[in-house]
Structure formats: C-alpha cells, structure tokens
Specification:
The chain is mainly α. It has a domain at about 1-80. The chain is about 55% helix and about 10% strand. Strand 1 and strand 2 form a beta hairpin. The mean pLDDT is about 80.
Length: about 110
C-alpha cells in the first residue's frame, strides 16, 4: 500500500513540475499552488467516475456532489460539438522500408 501511495505522490509531483513549467503564470499570486494543483487533479480524476455512477451514495452531501456532476455532464453533452476546420483532402499513404538499397538497416518513409 505504501509503495503505491509513493508512486502516486511522485507522479503528482512530476505532473506539478511539468504543469508549472508549461504555464508559469498559473495561480502565480497564490502561495498554495501545490494544494490547488492537487485539488484540481483530484477533481479531474474523480469526475468521470462520478458521472458513470449508477446509484447515488447514501450520504446527502455525497449524493449532491454526484448529482451535480451528472447534471453538468449532461449539459455539456447536449452542447453541439465544434466542427473541425480541416479540408476534405484525402490523407496521403506512407510506406515504411527498413532496409536501404545497399541492404543496410535504415528506416525510410515514402509518402505519396
């Protein structure tokens, strides 16, 4: 049990370091960035499970949270999805060769 908790801790720390490296202005004026990151990470990891849950929990507070998450998921599901702005051109087919003309091992990608 302790090993898995340590793995989760290390993964969360690595994620926080990467997140603050990518977006250094995220919650920059707050002194508790780590706590805010863990709270947001926890919500993002638990939200899909709360939406999929078939029955409501027994405790009223937990039931309210699950109901709220399921209602929010239904609202976002009824929104129209944005249309991709891509062309109707077909994708090119690519062929991979692992040996060159001299027989040496190389990787060539030829697309047409």
């Amino acid at each position: 049990m302790a090993l898995s908790q340590n793995l989760i801790d290390v993964s969360a720390i690595n994620g926080f370091i990467l997140w603050t490296a990518v977006d250094p202005t995220w919650q920059q004026n707050k002194s508790c960035q780590w706590r805010l990151y863990l709270e947001e990470l926890g919500k993002l990891l638990v939200f899909p499970q709360m939406v999929r849950r078939g029955r409501l929990p027994r405790k009223p507070q937990a039931a309210a949270l699950v109901s709220e998450a399921q209602a929010e998921a239904q609202e976002t599901a009824t929104m129209p999805a944005p249309q991709p702005a891509c062309s109707k051109a077909k994708r090119r087919t690519c062929q991979h060769r692992t040996t060159g003309p001299t027989g040496k091992p190389r990787v060539f990608i030829t697309c047409s």
